[in-house]
Amino acid sequence: MINLLDLDAAGLAAFLADLGEKPFRAKQVSRWLHQRLVDDVGAMTDLSKALREKLAAAAEIRRPAVVSDTTAADGTRKWLLDVGNGNAVETVYIPEDDRGTLCISSQAGCALDCAFCSTGKQGFNRNLTTAEIVGQLWHANRALLADGVTGAWVDQGRAPITNVVMMGMGEPLANYDHVLRALTVFLDDNAYGLSRRRVTLSTSGLVPAIDRLREDCPVALAISLHAGSDPLRDRLVPINRKYPLAALLAACVRYLDRAPRDFVTFEYVMLDGVNDQPEHARELAALVRDIPCKFNLIPWNPFPGAPFRTSPRPRILAFQQMLMDAGFVTTIRRTRGEDIDAACGQLAGRVQDRTRRRFRIHPAPASPVAP
Ligand code: SAH
Ligand code: SF4
Prior knowledge:
Blueprint: E1 2-3, H1 9-18, H2 25-35, H3 49-58, E2 59-60, E3 65-71, E4 77-82, E5 88-95, E6 100-103, E7 107-109, H4 118-122, E8 124-127, H5 130-146, H6 152-155, E9 163-166, H7 176-187, E10 199-203, H8 207-216, E11 220-224, H9 230-236, H10 245-256, E12 264-270, H11 278-287, E13 293-299, H12 313-325, E14 329-332, H13 349-359
């Protein structure tokens, strides 16, 4: 059986051609699937009965099973999805005044092992398939509509999810092919029709893949910088040993001439006494002086066993001020969904524990395998 959520427009056209259908039927099927969000080909009522029967015999619409569904006090909603073998990933809905953002996972676990990240500490299990990535958006829109989600944009007839950030579990550029195909579906006018500016991919800095993305599908780019010098970044973000700052920043500059926005966002997690001192801010400002960029400071979210503390608020504010004085737009990320462990980088650790202890998807979780 083909899972229709695995196919982009070209794949859908090829699949329908195999069934002896005209490729333009792909548009119709895509709209049923991604806009009207049906979960049954039988519901695609403007297709001939014969085609619906052929589709029903050869294809299904299947997203990962939902293990839990929690809503935080601030409206943030988190779904935990079973991706098999004891692995679960999360997708998080973040409502704001004028938009609904979905934070999507790309891998079960992550091999890159950043020192401060609970997903990294979990190790790498496997890449998500296109259907598992697209299925997160499909499911969130569907569940939110079914539950009568409110929001000014929803009242105007837009889908609940207006923005996607590839900032959930995993390193999206380490699962390049599936992530690329999923991005294609997010942008496709016959599917979700999101503009490139409303889709942001966050990466820890896989330089060759940043260059590929620039050619294949340049969406908004966020870089997890976290340090302004190689020795410190080597420690916090180990992939820096392979692609050091000079190479990473050069890739950002190349990316910018194809990017939908004229700046790169640098994410910077604030770790008490580690990367939050005035000299760090000065070093950082000097490092990126010539790059059109914005900073997003992320108060570090603790998880059990991590050897860090979050920088105290006054220090985060002082760091922000120094970057602003140096001429950089600098925001501090508001922590959302903390009471349900949906905040950045909290996604795996505690949740994975809970998955094992409380939900018991499978009795024996698979041990992590190397990529
Ligand atoms: N792998 C990608 C995307 C997922 S992580 C990347 O690293 O960019 C999304 C963001 O959350 C990254 O900037 C990451 O560095 C940050 N993050 C990870 N763990 C965190 C934590 N415990 N607290 C705050 N931010 C964290
Ligand atoms: Fe992987 Fe991103 Fe976590 Fe680093 S911060 S371990 S790249 S998910």
